[in-house]
Specification:
InterPro entries: ComEC_N, Competence_ComEC/Rec2, Competence_DNA_uptake, DUF4131, Metallo-B-lactamas, RibonucZ/Hydroxyglut_hydro. Its main location: membrane. It is found in: Cell membrane. It holds the Pfam family DUF4131. With 668 residues, the chain is of the alpha+beta class. It has six domains: 31 residues, no CATH class; 80 residues; 115 residues, OB fold (Dihydrolipoamide Acetyltransferase, E2P); 247 residues, no CATH class; 44 residues; 102 residues, Ribonuclease Z/Hydroxyacylglutathione hydrolase-like (Metallo-beta-lactamase, Chain A). The chain has 22 helices and 15 strands. Helix 2 crosses helix 13 and helix 20 runs parallel beside helix 21.
Length: 668
């Protein structure tokens, strides 16, 4: 057998030499993976990694963090495996037992470590001096302020002993009022600040600011009184990285400031979402496309695909006669990791970016080694690595959504024998992700907009095939040839015009809202996945009929809510309830008896900053199953008692409104 390539002739042998080996024709070399002992070991290892992940997640389901001695005790039973009697138990048992114990101990250790950092009451509210460096991109805040993260390297003060300083917060969330967004005098600073311990509203549902601060590692918040450059601050590798990233953000702002879609360009190019306005977030939320502007698996996957394709084609065209297939795969894998790492660093190396980078690395490694390992094993390995390197990941909603979406895609495509075609595959993927993630979104207190089906089916391929290549290649071209910035900006605006006009059009449609009980939503998701994966025609037809009937019924009920409030039933309570919501300054309380609901005041609202109705009332009322507010009482029209009335009336039917200032309330 002979092969003609580039005008040359090369013999392909079936053994030895530089030709392709026999394994190249018969698939990957699995000689080391065929034994039952090896397969059992691989299975036990996968079970152990999954159990470790469950242990990390389990810790955050506890109401109170166990003492450290208990967490250390979780790891002690693992020593029983070394006893003669312990080895008589099956391997999977020990994998689950040891993995679960180590996971709980690992997460507990880091949680205790973070909680050890606290602000002493003696300096809370006092002016203190700290030195360190800015460790994220500063952004414009409310009330003419600049907000940024500050990593402390030194606390000044005669009372700060080395023992005390080791427990002081190492990361602060600061605001400097009366300053423009670019007012920081330097990257390394000495600040006079007034600090307080982390605090936020505490309610059964809704956004918890204090949880968010803990997840991000902020153990104190405060305001800046003065700031001066401090060259004496030792700039570590992390400090140098943040300095370079801030300079990169300034360069992007300077080069692309003239672009109409500068906020989207900065977000997609370097992960800087600080320029996105409320109108951007409203459209993205209404269309379920917020993930498009968060550098994550979609974006790094595109970079990985492009880097791997180009590297492989280049190597095959230049070095066909001097490199083996395995060498080509190794170099292509290294090129993928390098390009993805470079893009992740340029995008700020945020938590979603690091998570996506790990998943790309694990998937690429499995393909590189050409091992016949179930695809679920690679997902479990990625899950374990993410939780090993970031044990606080379960506190992120993005953690659940990213692994949930990948799991749905594996369910749909992993077991398929034949191809589906790009269009059918795209529709199947979006349908599976929409239905499969709906129960998860419901658990997280979010909705699943129907608009997301249409928006994602068309916007994802446009972003993947057009927008991202133009943004990334255009950014590199401008960096190398600044004189070409004008045509590049025009091209970026053109492709983003198509995307944004489409999303605004989708967001403007009056879509029905699907509503259902938790059991119905879970059943809907499971049935859709079965329809996609079970290749039985009659089952698919019957299942599709059930799905369409339920969806039409649910959407019809939702659409009639706005016109027939009495038909909307609230859950029946046997005993009267009074709930006072924690809304910060102001007041909001709910009284319900039977299926009647009375809401007294709606709490504070500061436009573009905070709305108690959005962050507290809506999620908590929905969590209780409330669909109708029979009576809304507004004591007076001040913003701390009557904020967010319009949003509340958009989300719920309101029977009547009682207030002493009807004209002012009507204007709201």
């Amino acid at each position: 057998m002979k092969l003609r390539r580039h005008g040359c002739r090369r013999r392909i042998t079936l053994s030895g030499g530089q030709g392709l080996s026999r394994s190249s024709f018969n698939g990957p070399d699995l000689s080391g993976w065929q034994g039952p002992g090896v397969l059992s070991t691989v299975f036990s290892a996968a079970i152990g990694v999954f159990a470790f992940s469950c242990g990390v997640i389990l810790l955050y389901r506890l109401a109170v963090l166990p003492p450290q001695v208990w967490l250390i005790g979780c790891a002690v039973p693992a020593l029983l495996w070394f006893l003669p009697t312990g080895r008589k138990l099956p391997g999977p048992f020990w994998s689950v037992f040891i993995g679960l114990a180590l996971g709980v101990a690992w997460a507990g250790f880091w949680a205790n470590e973070r909680l050890e950092q606290r602000l002493p009451p003696s300096i809370e509210g006092e002016t203190v001096v700290v030195a360190g460096y800015v460790c994220d991109l500063p952004s414009a805040g409310s009330f003419d302020s600049i907000r940024f993260s500050f990593c402390v390297t030194r606390w000044y003060g005669s009372s700060h002993t080395p023992e005390l300083e080791s427990t002081l917060p190492s990361k602060l969330r600061l605001a400097w009022y009366g300053q423009p967004a670019d007012a920081l005098p330097d990257h390394r600073l000495r600040l006079e600040v007034v600090l307080k311990r982390p605090h936020g509203n505490l309610n059964p549902a809704g956004f918890r600011y204090e949880d968010w601060l803990f997840r991000k590692g902020y153990r104190a918040t405060g305001s800046v009184r003065s700031a001066v450059p401090d060259p004496s601050v030792e700039c570590s590798f992390e400090c140098q990285y943040h300095r370079i990233h801030i300079r990169l953000a300034h360069w992007v702002d300077e080069q692309f400031a003239a672009a109409r879609h500068h906020p989207l360009i900065a977000s997609l190019l370097i992960g800087n979402r600080g320029h996105l306005a409320s109108r951007h977030w409203e459209v993205l939320k209404a269309t379920g496309t917020i993930h498009l502007v968060a550098i994550s698996g979609l974006h790094l996957g595109l970079v990985a695909f492009g880097a791997g394709f180009l590297a492989r084609r280049l190597l095959l065209s230049l070095s066909t006669y001097r490199m083996s297939e395995r060498s080509v795969r190794v170099i292509a894998f290294l090129a993928i990791i390098f390009c993805c790492l470079f893009y992740a660093l340029a995008a700020g190396f945020t938590v979603p970016t690091r998570r996506a980078l790990l998943m790309v690395a694990v998937g690429g490694w499995i393909l590189l080694m050409a091992k016949q390992v179930p695809v679920w094993h690679s997902l479990v390995v990625a899950l374990g690595l993410v939780l090993l390197l970031d044990p606080f990941a379960p506190l992120d909603q993005g953690f659940w959504l990213s692994f949930g979406a990948v799991s749905m895609l594996i369910c749909v495509f992993a077991g398929r024998v034949g191809g589906t075609g790009w269009l059918a595959g795209l529709i199947l993927a979006q349908g599976a992700v929409f239905a499969g993630l709906w129960p998860l979104l419901e658990w997280l207190g979010q909705g699943q907009p129907i608009a997301g089906l249409l928006a994602n089916v068309l916007s994802i391929p446009w972003v993947s095939l057009v927008v991202m290549p133009v943004i990334i290649i255009g950014g590199l071209v401008v960096a190398l040839f600044p004189e070409l910035s004008n045509p590049i900006i025009w091209l970026m605006d053109a492709v983003l015009d198509v995307l944004w006009n489409f999303l605004e059009w989708v967001a403007g449609i009056n879509w029905p809202t699907l509503e259902g009980a938790s059991v119905e939503i879970v059943g809907f998701g499971v049935l859709v996945l079965l329809i996609i994966t079970v290749p039985v025609r009659n089952f698919r037809v019957a299942g599709l009929a059930i799905v369409l009937f339920w969806a039409s019924t649910a959407s019809t009920v939702s659409s009639t809510v706005s016109n027939t409030a009495p038909n909307v039933d609230n859950p029946w309570v046997t005993e009267p309830e009074v709930r006072v919501w924690d809304v910060g300054q102001g007041l909001s309380a709910m009284v319900r008896a039977g299926d009647n609901v009375l809401l007294y005041d709606t709490g504070p609202e500061v436009k573009g900053v905070f709305s108690a109705a959005e962050s507290v009332l809506v999620p908590n009322l929905k969590a209780l199953g409330v669909k109708r507010i029979d009576t809304l009482v507004i004591s007076h029209a001040d913003s701390d008692h009557a904020g967010g009335i319009g949003l509340l009336m958009d989300e719920f039917e309101v029977g009547r409104i009682l207030t002493g200032e009807p004209k002012a309330i009507r204007e709201k």
